[in-house]
Write a structure and sequence with these properties.
The protein is an alpha+beta fold. The protein has 12 helices and 12 strands. Strands 1-5-6-4-3-2 form a 6-stranded antiparallel β-sheet. It has a two-stranded antiparallel sheet with strand order 7-10.
Length: 422
Amino acid sequence: ERGISSRCRPSTGSDVSEESACSSFSSTSKPHKANDSRWEAIQMIRSRDGILGLSHFKLLKKLGCGDIGSVYLSELTGTKSYFAMKVMDKASLTGRKKLLRAQTEKEILQCLDHPFLPTLYTHFETDKFSCLVMEFCPGGDLHTLRQKQRGKYFPEQAVKFYVAEILLAMEYLHMLGIIYRDLKPENILVRDDGHIMLSDFDLSLRCTVSPTLIRSSNPETEALRKSSQAYCAQPACAEPSCMIQPSCTAPTTCFGPRFFSKSKKDRKPKPEVVNQVRPWPELMAEPSDARSMSFVGTHEYLAPEIIKGEGHGSAVDWWTFGIFLYELLFGKTPFKGSGNRATLFNVIGQPLRFPEYPVVSFSARDLIRGLLVKEPQQRLGCKRGATEIKQHPFFEGVNWALIRCASPPEVPKPVEIESFEV
């Protein structure tokens, strides 16, 4: 930590050369962040100096550290624009054979453009360090936020809010052929508006995927379902960056009753009308053929197929999604043992059990049961991915198209950046 001063330079001038490699993106390549003032700040410095690098940033506070690097709250000097900068020591990465993981994370971040995933504004390297400049989330992570809740678990309505946004982020990742493999509360950050952002992609697996559009086999059932609950009036968009609309005209809730109120004219459709209705096609993009033998992840979140060394694919993300849902609802994971070995044994050999308290809905428990099936081929989400999970009754009433307009359970207090300056 002390290897970099508050001005983002190493303790000795010989450790770091001037910026040896630098890459910046633009707002045009990241439509969901097109109106972000941080793009303008970066462009201003690049126009003035021609290149953006370590010397342009001031580190204010260490936010956390992971297996491949440390993350700092940083300021683009003279702009009052703040970022989260991940700083990785290249010698350490080489010595611990982690270079490929760092490269994987950078490549994944470069291609992401989604409201619930990180924006990579720029990245650069020096002789000693590799740096990723991303957005700063002042709300901390969901693990810390959960610890602050009464009973150390979230109310079910709050859980629905968080996991719905995470589900959309996972759907987008799978559409790009990215298996996340590291879902846990510590990796879910809270933005200043209370919405979430997935972080840390160094354990992710990249593979091929072929997105396809499918239609419901029962138009009548689908039409009746849409007429009786909240329903997105827009068809699914096949373009990944368009899956969520970039802005909403007014704040509202997507988790209450029907978003569109029912007028007197909105009666139950006549049979002859129903039979003429054709459902919107659904986008399915699940990298179901992917296989990896790597033993990666957090012990309490590891899927059975990873522990057994049988090879795993995208179904591991739906297992971790189930563990994540369980932890938010009950304040603990379902298979945790006295140690790592006992935990792994429980994942393989122990059945899923629910505590008597807190009381959660049947639909929540049913969703968890479907996700925590030990056989990956029988697991909810294995065949049609997020498409079938979104149709589970637990998510009834969620307006997926307007989810960014939903009021979050909690909005972080404004952070006084000046108090971090040294």
